[in-house]
Amino acid sequence: xxxxxxxxxxxxxxxxxxxxxxxxxxxxxxxxxxxxxxxxxxxxxxxxxxxxxxxxxxxxxxxxxxxxxxxxxxxxxxxxxxxxxxxxxxxxxxxxxxxxxxxxxxxxxxxxxxxxxxxxxxxxxxxxxxxxxxxxxxxxxxxxxxxxxxxxxxxxxxxxxxxxxxxxxxxxxxxxxxxxxxxxxxx
Length: 187
What we know:
The structure is a single chain. The protein is of the alpha+beta class. It has a single domain, classed as Glutaredoxin (3-Layer(aba) Sandwich), CATH 3.40.30. The chain has six helices and ten strands. The longest helix is centred in the middle third of the chain and has 14 residues, at 69-82.
């Protein structure tokens, strides 16, 4: 009899529940708290994940001398920031460098200016030692590649206003995917 009651309880618990939201990115379920870090940005100020609480945030890993995918990712994230949904969400981006030797303050300033990135797009830099800790916390691999390139993990993590990782995207991210998922998440 106890077994029947338990089965009934399980069946009833499943009834009337809300349908899971279908996201374009891969949902992180259950959400986990995003690792915090403190790095310098293109203005020379300090940027932290914790300092973005109250806003939707994307954390990604790029480098300024990237010949292919990094500029495309930056452009899509910047486009998402400027959409009505991005504005409503107060969407912010932190791009963490994977090339500490060449991603200097002057280099990231030139990069941000040349690509006309929004003020809420922060390009974070630091020493190899400091960045390595961030890479480890986010499970990012970064190593020198051929002809001055950097071979690195390429993904974007959408973090909610409470500081929890909610969705991960691959390097082919599109602004519409991100803004669509923000809408589905209630923005």
